[in-house]
Write a structure and sequence with these properties.
This protein is mainly α. Helix content is 69%, strand content 1%. It has 21 helices and two strands. The protein has helices spanning 4-8, 10-13, 23-34, 39-49, 59-73, 77-127, 143-183, 201-239, 243-250, 267-305, 309-313, 316-319, 337-356, 358-375, 382-395, 400-446, 457-472, 474-492, 503-542, 586-591, 606-621, and strands at 497-498, 501-502. The chain has a two-stranded antiparallel ribbon with strand order 1-2. Helix 3 packs antiparallel against helix 4 and helix 16 crosses helix 17. The termini are far apart.
């Protein structure tokens, strides 16, 4: 294939051979050759014809000059003929050379025409069917005319080829560049070689379609890289880690401060970014768990030592994340290493402070435990328990945290125990309240002045009515209480105690005392009837003269509690006094058995008292 320079100069570089002699001179030579049998005749004719009126040097003038010289010299005819033959041969050689040169030039022009046609066909084939340049219509005429005819088409096709090669080279360079970026090789290599045998638009469209796919993949990869970088930035902000150093370790092009315009989108970069994000997320998860543990310990210590709110607010940024999930923690520096370390230092400080205040905290918990037992009426040895706590703390044989944890367990168990006793204790309270009302009613019935029109008498009458109703419910209440207590004891296998006394024993004792009280009432009624009968007999014999010895003693009775086990029949070991802070325990009743005078003491007549006692006694038996 000829070069573009050779093809473009085909129609200009080939020149036909031009003789220096004019056509007229050539005719003279031809005439001379035509008379070569008679050289002198031919020569004479040439001389005659060669006379040039202008005096120019021509072949004829030269031959004439040569003949003059021969005549002057006296050359023989043979010598002249030999020299003329030699001159003729030299002229033939000149013709031959000229013909050869002309033939060679024609052959070169034909080859150039053939090469031009082949080149034209090759270019059209390479550029494809859509090429706007076709074969020239003129296929006849001289060779030079044909060369001139195809020269513009070749020139246009070569220009179109150069443009197409440039387009192919540009597209292939971009494809190679994107391939390099995906492969992780950002340095540009050699320019890709263009296959000039196929420069069609179809092939160019294929390359452009491939380039568009690669550009889309590059865009997707770049978006993915930017998302990864944004995630790394957020995680680094939360964890308090240097973002630029982190992304630089993945790839230097990800650091905007380096001034690199093109970001790495290689598979290796994406993989390392993914691993970095996973590592940072795992670090975030571990730090959050660690911070939440420290925050929980911090709150427990605050609550344990009653830390003021002002001091707690210093760690609001820590405790606010105590129940947060990993995704919910987005505040910059929320999981920084120095913040976690600061929290751990504070927990350690509070732990040391807690150890120094261990006795105070332990006694506080012991007080809470004793309060639960007191409300549940469970008797414990508080002095021994406090002494044991002191001994454990002073000896150092147990860790403070273990001791507090053990006491917390005891408090939890005590609360469960108190909850299981609540139903029975509520009924015990009702029973004791009913017993107090029963005691008050009996004292009220003994009061001879209860019907006097004194201040508050009507209130006592109303209370007495309510007390009688409540007293009538005591037997059913006691039976229900006994049944519940037995079920409770069977479930737990232990005895139900009330302030250290078995409840069933208290109920049995109350039943016995109630029976003894009923018998005492019957005995008193019988005795009273006998005394009244004797008094009637004496009046019938001696008259109705009053006697100081027979006058009924109007001693003032007390409407209030009796000593435990007294004649009023109240249960022993139970306090029937009503206090502002609740009913006291058994020991309180034993310490102060003295009666308390009622606020509404009144006197009643002997007959009214006797009749009312009789009525009350019959009602109690029911």
């Amino acid at each position: 294939m000829s070069s573009p320079e050779t093809s473009r100069t085909i129609n200009t570089d080939f020149k036909l051979f031009n003789h220096k002699s004019s056509s007229k001179e050539m005719l003279h030579i031809d005439a001379w050759f035509a008379n070569k049998d008679d050289p002198s005749l031919g020569l004479t004719k040439m001389v005659t014809d060669a006379k040039n009126p202008l005096g120019e040097t021509t072949c004829g003038s030269l031959l004439q000059k040569l003949q003059e010289i021969w005549d002057e010299v006296g050359e023989s005819d043979e010598q002249r003929d030999r020299m003329l033959l030699q001159l003729e041969q030299e002229c033939l050689d000149v013709y031959k050379r000229k013909v050869e040169l002309a033939a060679k030039s024609r052959a070169q022009l034909l080859q150039a025409l053939c090469d031009g046609r082949v080149e034209l066909s090759t270019l059209q084939s390479a550029l494809g069917e859509k090429s706007s340049v076709g074969f020239p219509e003129k296929t006849s005429g001289t060779i030079k005319e044909q060369l001139v005819a195809i020269a513009p088409a070749l020139e246009q096709l070569w220009k179109q080829k150069e443009e197409r090669v440039t387009q192919f080279a540009d597209v292939q360079s971009q494809i190679q560049k994107i391939f390099g970026e995906i492969a992780g090789n950002l340095s540009l290599g050699e320019t890709p070689a263009v296959d000039e045998s196929d420069l069609s638009l179809k092939k160019l469209d294929e390359y452009q379609s491939q380039l568009q796919d690669l550009q889309k993949e590059k865009s997707d990869r770049l978006q993915q890289v930017l998302e990864y970088v944004s995630t790394v930035h957020d995680l680094c902000a939360v964890l308090g880690i240097d973002f630029y150093s982190t992304v630089t370790e993945v790839h230097p092009s990800l650091n905007d401060s380096t001034g690199v315009q093109s970001k790495s989108i290689s598979n290796d970069t994406l993989s390392r970014l993914d691993q970095t994000v996973l590592a940072l997320e795992e670090d975030k998860k571990q730090r959050l768990h660690k911070l939440q543990e420290s925050a929980a310990q911090l709150i427990d210590l605050w609550n344990l030592m009653d830390t003021p709110e002002e001091e707690r607010k210093l760690f609001d940024h820590v405790t606010c994340n105590i129940s947060a999930s990993v995704d919910e923690v987005t505040v910059p520096g929320a999981l920084a290493a120095d913040l976690i370390e600061q929290t751990e230092v504070e927990v350690e400080r509070l732990d040391q402070l807690k150890a120094s205040r261990m006795k105070e905290i332990a006694f506080k918990k012991q007080g809470e435990l004793e309060e639960i037992f007191a409300q549940a009426h469970i008797e414990i040895d508080t002095e021994a328990a406090r002494g044991k706590i002191m001994e454990l703390i002073d000896s150092g044989s147990v860790e403070p945290t273990e001791l507090l944890a053990d006491m917390d367990d005891q408090i939890a168990k005590a609360k469960d125990e108190a909850l299981s006793r609540k139903d029975i204790l509520d009924k015990v309270e009702k029973w004791m309240s009913a017993c107090e009302e029963e005691s008050w009613l009996e004292d009220y019935n003994r009061d001879e002045n209860r019907y006097n029109a004194s201040r508050g008498a009507h209130l006592n009458l109303k209370r007495a009515e309510k007390a009688r109703i409540l007293v009538n419910k005591i037997p059913a209440l006691v039976d229900s209480l006994v049944a519940k207590t037995r079920v409770w004891e069977e479930e737990r296998g232990i005895s139900f105690t009330y302030d250290g006394v078995p409840l069933l024993a208290m109920l049995d004792e109350y039943a016995m005392l109630r029976q003894e009280r009923e018998e005492e009432k019957r005995r008193l009624r019988d005795q009273k009837k006998f005394q009244e009968l004797q008094h009637t007999d004496q009046e019938s014999v001696f008259g109705s003269k009053p006697s100081p010895s027979s006058r009924p003693v109007g001693t003032k009775k007390v409407v209030g509690p009796r000593a435990n086990g007294g004649p009023n029949g109240t249960p022993r070991r139970l306090s029937l006094n009503s206090h502002q802070n609740g009913r006291s325990a058994v020991k309180d009743a034993k310490r102060d058995p003295r009666p308390v005078a009622p606020l509404n003491y009144v006197e009643v007549s002997k007959e009214d008292a006797a009749s009312h006692v009789s009525g009350t006694g019959s009602g109690s038996e029911t």
